[in-house]
Amino acid sequence: MKGLPVKTPKVSLLKSYTREYLAITKYYMTGLIGR
To answer: How many domains, in total, are found in the chain?
Structure first.
């Protein structure tokens, strides 16, 4: 984790993680419904 600053705000980290999780979940749900 060299690229990240030492003091990365946990809130922004959590938000970006949540956004990724929701995007992946939405992608899988759409794929399942599409079949």
So the answer is: 1
Phi-psi region of 11 (alpha: psi -120 to 50; beta: other; left: phi over 0): alpha
Over residues 1-35, the pLDDT tens digits come to 566 666 778 888 899 999 999 999 999 999 988 87
Residue 2 lies in a domain: no
Q: How far is the C-alpha of 3 from the C-alpha of 7, rounded, in Å?
A: 12
Residue 21 lies in a domain: yes
pTM above the 0.70 mark?
no
Rounded to 5 degrees, what angle do the CA atoms 17, 26, 24 make?
40
Q: Is 3 part of any domain?
A: no
